[in-house]
Specification:
The chain is of the alpha/beta class and 284 residues long. It has four helices and 19 strands. Strands 1, 2, 3, 4 and 5 form a five-stranded parallel beta sheet that branches. Strands 11-12-13-14 form a four-stranded antiparallel beta sheet, with no helix packed on it. It has a two-stranded antiparallel sheet with strand order 6-7.
Amino acid sequence: DPAAKLCYNDYNIDNWTWAKTQGVYNMVRDFKQRGVPIDCVGLQSHFNGNSPYNSNYRTTISSFAALGVDVQITELDIQGGSAQTYAAVTNDCLAVARCAGITVWGVRDQDSWLGANASPLLFNGGNKKPAYDAVLNALNAANPGPTPTVTPTPPGDNGQIKGVASGRCLDVPSASTTDGTQVQLWDCNGQSNQQWSSTSAGEIKVYGSKCLDAGGTGNGAKVQIYSCWGGDNQKWRVNSDGSIVGVQSGRCLDAVGAGTGNGTQIQLYDCSGGGNQKWTWSRS
């Protein structure tokens, strides 16, 4: 069935620092790079004393989403039924555009696989619990917004991308073609490692096959080159004010520390309008 959505669903992949989470993340990334069909990742999210909720849960969701898959929270229950934690999980999902839904693993405490004494769900008997109100309040407080649209510079031939503050060019160090190489500022020299082109899909390419790629979504995430595979972390909006904004993150291409010298690395950062976040694109 070509219309079927293919999802990988697993437990204990909620905490971003855990080895299992990293193993599944690397597996999904490998699938995407090799063209193996996968549409979403399911987080079973059974939070308890052995597997507690951690504030890096949002990092986990956004990191999987940045690979170009949807994320589903598929079996949510929280031992003790903390209203605060239920609200936090809901807000974490709402904060990531590709978090597509939350399924609570049962309705009433007495029907839960954990048993009524664990109080893990939103209802006790026929009564709504504080956790129910916390989830509802988080949903009602959400600010729906339009789906981001990709408005890249029109596709064109190679050209240099020059920092307004530095006068230096967006450069791949040592003309590397290795995936994960962080880009930098360097004196403009017109070589192939400083020649960038844009596509109608919003990609910015170098060498014709490597894409400008965000290695995460948060402030300080490195901007690197990576084999093009169509993920939202490889799509950019080139704005009339000179900023270049990641479609997935909403953050700007930024010279670290407002640096201007050779070797200054490039990252994502909240858009501030500074000269270290403004660029000119000279076509050759």
